[in-house]
Design brief:
The chain is of the alpha+beta class. The chain has five helices and four strands. The protein has a two-stranded antiparallel sheet with strand order 1-2. Strands 3-4 form a two-stranded parallel ribbon. InterPro entries: RNaseH_sf, Tc1-like_DDE_dom.
Length: 132
């Protein structure tokens, strides 16, 4: 799964049936994430190779979105790491044993993440955001 988190709460998500690649990440950004971004947003990405798409910064800059990469492996500065932790905890308790059961449990786990959770995680990581 790939997803986004903002000070407003959980954002665009996509369930993948294989490992994330630059191609699948480019699809996610263009078709899932970009339509949800607003002028003035800052997209913070982990410093993973698949996140380094040629032209990504320029493409989003034309839409008024800044792209910032975290230092290599710095989960303490990534609020989405807290979201993934909560999501995985919910999935573990559901103990889904089939793909369909996992998809259902995943939707329930995603709904368990609240906008207040997101705000708290951003604050915890040192990003004191003002939600517009």
């Amino acid at each position: 799964m790939i997803g986004a988190l903002s000070g407003r709460g959980r954002g665009a998500g996509q369930l993948l049936d294989r490992a994330l690649t630059q191609r699948s990440f480019a699809f996610y950004v263009a078709h899932c994430l970009a339509p949800t971004l607003r002028r003035g947003d800052v997209l913070v990405l982990a410093n993973l190779p698949v996140h380094h798409l040629t032209g990504l910064r320029q493409w989003l800059a034309k839409r008024g979105v800044e792209v910032v990469f975290l230092p290599p492996y710095s989960p303490d500065f990534s609020p989405i790491e807290q979201a993934w932790s909560k999501l995985k905890n919910k999935l573990r308790t559901g103990a889904a044993r089939s793909y369909d059961a996992l998809k259902n449990a995943l939707h329930e786990a995603i709904d368990w993440i609240t906008s207040q959770d997101a705000k708290n995680w951003f604050d915890h990581c040192g990003y004191h955001t003002q939600v517009a």
